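Run folding on both entries below.
>entry_1
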Amino acid sequence: MNTIKNIVIVGGGTAGWLVAASLARQLNIINDSETNITLVESPDAPTIGVGEGTWPTMRSTLKRIGIDETDFIRECDVSFKQGTQFVNWHRLHKDGSDATYFHSFELPHTQWRTSPGPYWHYLKSELNRSYADAISVQPEACRGYFAPKTMATPAYEGLLNYAYHLDAGKFAKMLAKVATEKLGVRHISAYIERARLDEDGYITSLATREKGDIKGDFFVDCSGFAGLLIDRTYEIPFRSVKDKLFVNSAIAIQMPYERPDAPISSPTLSTAQTAGWIWDIGLQARRGTGHVYSDDFISDDEAEAQLRRYPRSRL
């Protein structure tokens, strides 16, 4: 068995730098002179501009890496996420108002001794409210634009369960800074021309244009759609799930708030469209919106037109 001492991560962005920082902290390479982590990314890799919503487990990830929550909120344009609000995903109410429902992060066991799920068929008529409102105060907190914690609540703890909305570009830069300056990760900016393989088909090094060969014992592909190792090197075929997941295209637009003191939506807003849905993520200084759709049922131009009509209706 060969001991893994040199780990090479291909690709930066949120995925690459999260892997680098997490491994560096877990392996404590800053105090281990024999173990090295190197992240290699292209000098002009494009930013996709999505991935701005997270799951509550992000809190434990950031805490484990050693990132101060206050610094994270300030540097990455962060707002609290308390779930998702689905708008118009089923028929309108009888009075013609929009039909909406919440998927909150607060779970039944935090306020109920026994989960009401198995008994909801019998309870819903007596309670006369949605399941989300019955099991938690979080939907009402979202409607009132309340945060899941106070200024006195300790870092990464909350009165209600929460995650984050964040600026993905700023987040990647913060992770890179923490990984390289505090955790000992080596960063190389270079074009990867190809991977070199041994006689058994294992990757031994990356041939780069600017830095020559970069050797490693273990390689992680975080190059996204480029698939520098998974696709270009090993030619692993793309597996379509079109028979289960109909949407296959997306358009993203960043939008300003209508005024500086506009309230920030705590849930991610997901509004159904004719062939997909529009997401709306409220950050501190802007909104991140986008349209996920199926090009089998709508043209790219019409999908973009629906997205551009949506922000004006919100403002």
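>entry_2
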Amino acid sequence: MNGTDVSSFVLDRLSLDFESLTPEAQKAARYVLENPHCVGVSTVREIAEFANVKPNTFVRMARQVGFDGYEDFRAAFREAIRTGSAGFPDRARWLQDVSKKGELGGLYAEMVGAAIRNIEETFARVDATALKAAAEAIWASRQVFTLGVGVNNANAQNFTYLASTGMVQFHAIPRQGSNPADDIAWADARDVLIVMTCRPYRREVVETVRLAREQGMTVIALSDSPASPIIIPAQHRFVITAEAPQFFPSSVSIIALLETLLSFVIAIASPEIVERVETFHKRRHQLGLYLEDTE
């Protein structure tokens, strides 16, 4: 079983069943979801020690997701899923060392390779059916709130801007001078929250997802682990890969997935959306916002 198979079967199953597990089994499942590369090389006693649970907890957890026992479960992880363990400061220091040694050509290759891997690994986990289901939820909604803070604020703003060329119900949050919990205060089951955060997870984003579910909203989550605190409670879950040599998570796969999701929304939308987009751009031409071709 390769890394993609592990993600699509075992890890997704653990994520889906997470809330139904006992507290001790949740500790074991969380360790697997966040450290899948350790499973294939660890005995049941070793991984139980890492997760701070008893070995039998891992055996029971493995059986709950359809395996005969831990050894059968462990065999699926022989091909370790690539994860990054270096912290942000360590990566920043590494970048400085690369520059001092005149190895920027190597850094260039690493960055390009990481961007390509992130796209490939992300879309290997996602299928058209999942994207279509999320797109249908968006199109059928009254309002769509797109939440991203920090580096993901720009990703949320960009998605909302693109969507606004044909639709009016999109709002990027947090709004200036506000906070995301206030921004969704009057949202309900007719509304959708698209949310994104990667490790280290932002507290206000996790809290807003909790509030959104309490209010009956549909949550579409993008994050870097099946154990992410925004992935587990979401109805539509997209696990992305955000690894890169730099000291902050890469946004390449998030942007690509959001653009693909928006293309699905347009594809399943009513025909009038085409007229809306045409009207939007015609007005821009009329206002002289574009340089016109004079040839």
